[in-house]
Request: fold
Amino acid sequence: MARTLVNHKANFGTMPVFMTTVSTILGAILFLRFGYAVGHTGFIGAMGIIALGHLVTIPTALAVAEIATNQKVLGGGAYYIISRSFGLNIGASIGIALYLSQAISVAFYIIAFGEAFEPVFNFLSESYNINIRDARFITIPTMAILALIILTRGANLGMKALYMVVALLFTAIIFFLAGKSTHSGIQFVMNNRISGADPFFYVFTIIFPAFTGMAAGLGLSGDLKNPSRSIPNGTLWATLAGMVIYILVAYKLAISATPEELASDQLIMQRIAVWGPIIPVGLAAASLSSALGSIMVAPRTIQAIGMDDIFPTKFINNWFARGKPVSNEPFNGSLLTVIIAFVFVAIGELNFVAKTISMFFMLTYGAICTISLLEHFAADPSYRPTFRSKWYLSLIGAVFSIWLMFKMNGGYATISLVIMALIYYMVTSYERERKGLGKLFRGVIFQLSRQLQIFAQRADKEDPDKYWRPFAICISQDTFVRRSAFDVLRWLSFKYGFGTYIHFIEGYLTNETNQQSKEVLNKLINLAAGSRNRVYLDTIISPSYTSAIAQVIQLSGISGKGNNMILFEFSRTNPETLIEVLKNYRLLESTNFDLCVLNTSYKGFGYKKDIHIWISIMDFENANLMILLGYIILGHPEWRKGQIKIFATHPADDMDRKREDLLKLIKSGRLPISPSNVEPIPVESMTNPKAIISEKSADADLTIIGFRSELIKAEGIKIFSDYEDIGNILFVSSTKEKEIK
Reply:
């Protein structure tokens, strides 16, 4: 049939979700290991185990209820929720691990089912001398019968069987709670336990698989009439019912048997119940119901994974995604689940299986709580669940999930994380275009950025020239002709500053130019992706360069503090393009922007090793800004082998003092400039300054020269021209002297 996650004959309501979940929660651990827990930790310790376990399961149940009432949860349950929130690659790494846990948990419950026959084995041995020491004589045939039911009749018959076994399960619990003490004189003591008891977290590790059934009902999402109603209701009620029953059972055990009896007899509940044989029957029912729940859920998880084309070949994906006609029953997924379960049933080691599944379930719970937490902080208007949990509950669930993993068994926790990382690497290697965390984290980053910008704006009380950093903006029409201005901007903003690069599109705002701007922006983003940069990219549509500049200098900037510098560029072969900028110089002066003009040549930025800074006697306001810009540019990895050389032109009789001043500035400012790279030049010898600069900086990869606004008024474009055979030049004009501290 067509690939779909929806069962077109979906007719399940809330009760199947409740039954599947509660039958998995009230499973084999309740009958086989909970007496051991009370005996080793006392009643107060058992309450601690229940409370600690539910610090994970209740926030997860609330998160499930929240997410399920916001989006339609199709087939795949927990995998579907995680993959649609974290993205398919991360969802797949968790989903595959989750599927394996669900499939292996079928074996766990079947092995536990075999433990229920211990009284039968003892009876046969004592009465008829028939010794059956291996429970696999029971578990393997049981697994075969269960496989036959699921493969031939599917979830409908499985659900009918589940109703019967859950009825037996609750009957056994009622008979137990109505029972009496093993002998008279037992007193209730909160912390009564055996001597030499096992450590608390060791006991918790053994008991925790009892709480992993909380998400079992999620796997039926594709078979539900109304998932957004049935999933939260069924999951929450089952979780609460399970917690209440565990508390009642712990209390009943504490007042009905001694710690020694609880610790030594794994079927102690049989001695307490009104009718003892009901307990092995209840254990068998609990194990079978949990196995049925898992064997119905696991195939639907792998079917959803195949539907998302997670596996490397189309054939494998189609094979897993394929369902039976009409019902969409995942036969192929069921077949694989049965095979995996048979392998682990044959192994027959209960503790190994329990540790394996607990870790992956913990990771799943942590992921679901994290999704809920991030959705709270993202404040996405499309996230409108009709049921809302609290962000701090989701935080508690997420943190405790990871913490308890390592408290339970650090080795298994590490192995689980490594396995998931390998799965993620495998999926990403052949699905590189799929998004990972970006889908969910985009909203969180947006909110964080918004709050930081507001905070920065409100806290901006310091002198901007005293603690200066570049908040630079560049506007250019020649982005795709020359990249030099973009390179300077990305160097300035990589480590110490903020940069906004705007491509100018001449014209009026129309549908056509708006569409053009979107296409240009995508092209810009793709172009920038190939370089190491932290520049914010944008476009502007304006009828003239003058109006574009007027708009750009009024932008607030991405930093939350506004811009303080503007960068223009022109080609040395076509200096006339700068005329339009100079026409608007008074406009720039009115905003107190520092102005940088990049003169580009055929040499480019060379090997990015040498930055020459020319400080003249007129640069008392520009000097510190020029030095700071050189230092900031060296902070980019592309200039990691670079050095700064300063040429200071002053009268001959003042050269020594000026050099000492510069050396003191370099030392006090902790600038990486060698004293040998500070060269004074007598101004009297500068009969042709441009020729001398061109000669001494001919091999420089970037030359920084200062200029004053008065020169622009007097000479115009001439101050930026007539530099021959020299690399790129950055002309700098500062509105105020910057401090170097």
About this structure: The first helix runs from residue 14 to 25. The radius of gyration is 36 Å.
